[in-house]
């Protein structure tokens, strides 16, 4: 079991935890490696909508950065979790439950980011605990806010810590802010199908999430999977890339916010089908794994305008 101090789960101690500020530095190489990790240019190395993420296309001075790259700023905090007093859980059973991202400014191709993190929620689900962490990221030099991430971490086996008959539930934010929408029954507005590669998680992990759940068959087995699974944020990256292609005409900076809930694991090598429905400036999406015909991820993306190509 991870957790510092006492061996009792103490929710009040958990939610009063203060993270120290931290820095995250990245280069163009990191942005390009990330884009390859979520499948950019995998099918077509001269894709006219994606080459700009990995190469100075048409002599552009800087490569362009995908909005989901912002999620990497939140990565260090899962290892910080082991230091949170009062939190008791088995790190081998941790799964990524949800991710919510707000983008305030297009992400630069390189930079030094100052992260300010806080505990945003804690919920006792009986068989599991859900911990929410919120990270607001600023460009260090200008002090400008760049983005906000809120992640929900699903800690299997860590629930049942409530001291009263009501299950413990604390949330810093109104629950509707990142609530996930109902999937419409109508035909999707657009559908995009793409195969992940058998080595997808091995490539994606180089962007900074080295949890062996995604690379080590023995660790995956202990976590209950027949082989290593894909990072949730990799699947989210595939989905948002599909949305940028099909809905935004390749313009990544139209995206204001992204919400996703991971409902089932994905095995590297499986085919992802992203279905999309437009509701004004909100795009609702669902990702299914073709081989098992199961939904694995759903959520919404808010756009600042609609593409003239629609
Ligand atoms: C973070 C960085 C590390 C990265 C790791 C990875 O990438 S891992 C790879 C990527 N991640 C994955 O592959 C994970 C894929 N997801 C899964 O395998 C499953 O969804 C699960 C095991 C997380 C939960 O399944 P289950 O059958 O045990 O759950 P249930 O349906 O019985 O509901 C129990 C309660 O929990 C609620 N709740 C449910 N799901 C979620 C959620 N996703 N999110 C939040 N909450 C969720 C649900 O609403 C309900 O509460 P209510 O309504 O009663 O108050």
Automatic annotation (TrEMBL):
BP GO terms, sorted: fatty acid beta-oxidation
GO molecular function: (3S)-3-hydroxyacyl-CoA dehydrogenase (NAD+) activity; 17-beta-hydroxysteroid dehydrogenase (NAD+) activity; enoyl-CoA hydratase activity
Top-level lineage group: Eukaryota
One Pfam family hit: MFE-2_hydrat-2_N
Domain spans labelled Peroxisomal multifunctional enzyme type 2-like N-terminal: 24-157
Annotated MaoC-like domain residues: 197-294
CDD domains associated with the record: HDE_HSD
One CC-aspect GO term: peroxisome
InterPro entries for the chain: HotDog_dom_sf, MaoC-like_dom, MFE-2_N
Gene3D superfamilies per the UniProt record, alphabetical: Hotdog Thioesterase (3.10.129.10)
PANTHER family: PEROXISOMAL MULTIFUNCTIONAL ENZYME TYPE 2 (PTHR13078:SF56), PEROXISOMAL MULTIFUNCTIONAL ENZYME TYPE 2-RELATED (PTHR13078)
Protein name: Enoyl-coa hydratase 2, peroxisomal
């Amino acid at each position: 079991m991870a957790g510092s101090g006492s061996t009792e789960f103490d929710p009040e101690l958990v939610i009063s935890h203060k993270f120290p500020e931290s820095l995250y530095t990245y280069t163009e190489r990191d942005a390009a490696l990330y884009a390859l990790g979520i499948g950019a240019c995998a099918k077509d190395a001269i894709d006219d909508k994606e080459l700009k993420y990995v190469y100075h296309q048409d002599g552009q001075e800087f490569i362009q950065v995908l909005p989901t790259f912002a999620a990497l700023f939140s990565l260090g905090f899962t290892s910080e979790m082991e230091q949170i007093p009062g939190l008791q859980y088995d790190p081998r059973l941790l799964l990524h439950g949800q991710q919510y991202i707000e983008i305030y400014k297009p992400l630069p191709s390189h930079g030094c980011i100052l992260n300010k993190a806080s505990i945003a929620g804690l919920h006792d689900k009986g068989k599991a605990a859900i911990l929410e962490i919120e990270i607001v990221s600023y460009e260090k030099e200008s002090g400008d806010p760049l983005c906000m991430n809120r992640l929900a971490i699903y800690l299997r086996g860590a629930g049942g810590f409530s001291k009263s008959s009501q299950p413990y539930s604390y949330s810093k934010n109104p629950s509707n802010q990142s609530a996930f929408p109902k999937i419409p029954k109508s035909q999707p507005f657009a559908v995009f199908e793409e195969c992940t590669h058998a080595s997808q998680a091995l490539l994606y992990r180089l962007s900074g999430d080295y949890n062996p759940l995604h690379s080590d068959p023995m660790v995956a087995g202990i976590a209950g999977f027949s082989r290593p699974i894909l990072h949730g944020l990799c699947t989210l990256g595939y989905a948002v890339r599909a949305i940028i292609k099909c809905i935004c005409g390749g313009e990544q900076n139209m995206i204001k916010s992204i919400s996703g809930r991971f409902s089932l694991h994905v095995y590297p090598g499986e085919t992802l089908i992203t279905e999309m429905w437009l509701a004004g400036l909100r795009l609702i999406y669902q990702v299914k794994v073709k081989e098992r015909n199961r939904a694995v991820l759903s959520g919404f993306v808010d756009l600042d305008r609609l593409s003239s190509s629609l």
